[in-house]
Amino acid sequence: MATLSDVARRAGVSPATASRVINGSSKPVTDELRERVLAAVAELQYVPNAHAQLLARSHRSAVGVIVHDVSDPYFAEITRGLQRVASDRGRLLMICNSYRDPDRELEYVELLRGHQVAALILAGSGYHDEAFTRQLNEKLAAYETTGGRVAVIGRHEHSGDAVMPDNRTGGYLAGRELCELGHRAIGVVAGPRILTTTTDRLDGLRQALREQGRDLPDRRIRYAEFDRDGGAGATARLLDADPELTAIVALNDSMAIGALATLRARSLPVPQRISVIGFDDMPIARDVTPPLTTVRLPLVDMGVRAMSLVLGADTLSPRVEMLPAELVRRDTTGPAAQSTTRPAPRARRADTAS
Amino acid sequence: MATLSDVARRAGVSPATASRVINGSSKPVTDELRERVLAAVAELQYVPNAHAQLLARSHRSAVGVIVHDVSDPYFAEITRGLQRVASDRGRLLMICNSYRDPDRELEYVELLRGHQVAALILAGSGYHDEAFTRQLNEKLAAYETTGGRVAVIGRHEHSGDAVMPDNRTGGYLAGRELCELGHRAIGVVAGPRILTTTTDRLDGLRQALREQGRDLPDRRIRYAEFDRDGGAGATARLLDADPELTAIVALNDSMAIGALATLRARSLPVPQRISVIGFDDMPIARDVTPPLTTVRLPLVDMGVRAMSLVLGADTLSPRVEMLPAELVRRDTTGPAAQSTTRPAPRARRADTAS
DNA sequence: TCCCTGCGGGAAAGGGCTTTCACTGCGGTA
DNA sequence: TACCGCAGTGAAAGCCCTTTCCCGCAGGGA
């Protein structure tokens, strides 16, 4: 590969001058020399070695992002928001997929630190895992000590800037909606229980039911991967254990789509026989049939906020922005079926619900 | 940030020794010193500066990938394949989204070259654009001259290693299927006409119709963005111009989903009144309702092949691997409706089709 | 005429790391 | 006993670039 000195030699100038021309330095260079340098660059197809540049320049510019999986629409949307702000400010993004592996997450923090990123954004859910959290915080602290900025999206036990989707309220809204539609036998298709996202959403849901004097027994919850197949499998297991279910809450839209697939396979009409409600409102939600009722999170905005926090002024106080969840009624929810195959068992529940 | 010399000083050794311990060099170091270095690393939370390493080391390891948009399921699948092979061989991937902007594509080639990637993979479709193609080829040639490896996925006018999905046959398969089902009024929802992917698929489709003695008039083709909204809009325009259509071929699944949305909005039952066929068979295709009939492309495999080509031995002859397309029959296709609102006009067509 | 200013350019000092090369002891062979 | 080879370590060169510092020179004011 041609180097800067090659260019300089060919143009008959010093490397310093060549560098100035190429980078548009503020130091003036005569047109004569400028032309010669530019010509040499073109002839040699010169491209500066990015690593050498990054090493020589002092200021750090790129921003590191750790997500679970960019191809997951949830993160794709968040990333879109991150990108938008980053591009506006001329920052490059380095995006890493942890695939929900805490160890890989830790590794990526190091890797990005090694790449001298100006800031770090953790966009995946937090984990309920003491040891991991401690290690992560150590690494983040070390990074912040050397001037790095950190922001997290979602609930992590990290004391710093954060953007928090209101998962709890979202869960609550889903639960309340179903209660108001008269559902009592509600099953939950949940993501991995180690994720704070899962437990927060579940907590909100639980609270909504509790307000109606009900509880959410463990047998009505199935944990699985946060994806389509996870949702399909969990729904099947839920139905096998409890065929009377009249509603299913899926803790994200991918799982909801899986749930819909299972219900279709079992010929259970949605929403006549059973209602389904998702979470996130990813773009595809409106295109499944029936269009999915779900809890919307402002995903793109979450990305925008997080990047703004991290690129903005460093106001010593850690800032936490809570973004609201909102129910989007579409066609997978309806009133609870008047009776299922066996209406009798219903009587044993002395609910006071509306 | 702590540097290697900081570590060395703290451990009371030379930077050379510290480096050897940290990188697990083949040169032996006594346990005594090794321990001291490791301790210093831990205490200082030392992370090597990746740029300095990359600069000092001669061998290039990362691989650059340029796609249109990773969050598009088509590219997400391809990327999965690329990743798989890359991870297996301990290579890091740098993924860039061109968002179908040729200029950005060119910029990224430079950027990746600057980052000293060992190889470059162009995963997006080629463009029908002389000027662009020439520039791209110049840049790629320059890169290859300095030992870089290049592979493209899809039809680019680039003479080198390539993985080609058989778009033409795919289009042909879609057309033949529809003909066999008795469809005559077939509309096409196409992607940007500047993409070779679009034209290749269209060519195949055209050939299938021609074999039945029909042609594909321009008024039955609508070009739009290769996404859901593009598909929805194009379908609407197609229907407005020609309400008699009994089948629609969408040139990718996202567009097909948009088409389905428009048809639902207009209460045209699929496939009873109108058939739809997609292209790519992305994962969501089986989860829309009705499940989408489509042309499958081995997306993951395409990624695997491309990465293998580029990471494998450099057999001077450029290799071109053609991967087959395959029709996947699901529920959006059915026999052509016996009659539409006005059966009469049909008579004017003197088709000899089966 | 002399000095100062300021412009245009180059020399050289890093930036943090890897790796070659040279050096010091040591055990072993002739 | 003289020498060879090698394990273990450090000094220093080099990777490619940016940027500071300095120098020469031309022009303008005194």
What does it look like?
Two copies of one chain form a homodimer. The first copy, chain A, is α/β, with parallel strands linked by helices. Chain A is built from twelve helices and twelve strands. Chain A has helices at residues 4-11, 15-23, 31-44, 50-56, 73-88, 102-114, 130-145, 167-180, 196-211, 228-241, 253-265, 299-311, and strands at residues 63-67, 93-97, 119-122, 149-153, 161-165, 186-190, 221-223, 247-250, 275-277, 294-296, 320-323, 326-328. In chain A, strands 2-1-3-4-5-11 form a six-stranded parallel beta sheet, sandwiched between helices. Chain A has a four-stranded parallel beta sheet with strand order 7-6-8-9, sandwiched between helices. In chain A, strand 1 (63-67), helix 5 and strand 2 (93-97) form a beta-alpha-beta unit. In chain A, helix 2 (15-23) crosses helix 3, helix 5 (73-88) runs parallel beside helix 12 and helix 8 runs parallel beside helix 9 (196-211). The longest helix of chain A is centred in the first third of the chain and has 16 residues, at 73-88. The radius of gyration of chain A is 26 Å and the shape is elongated. Mean pLDDT of chain A is 92; it is low at 339-354. Chain A binds chain B through residues 1, 45, 47-55, 70-71, 73, 76-77, 79-80, 95, 110-111, 113-116, 138-139, 142, 146, 228, 257-258, 260-261, 264, 283-284, 286-290, and chain B through 1, 45, 47-55, 70-71, 73, 76-77, 79-80, 95, 110-111, 113-116, 138-139, 142, 146, 228, 257-258, 260-261, 264, 283-284, 286-290. The first copy, chain A, binds a DNA duplex (30 and 30 nucleotides) through residues 3-5, 13-17, 19-20, 23, 25, 27-30, 33, 48-49, 51-58.
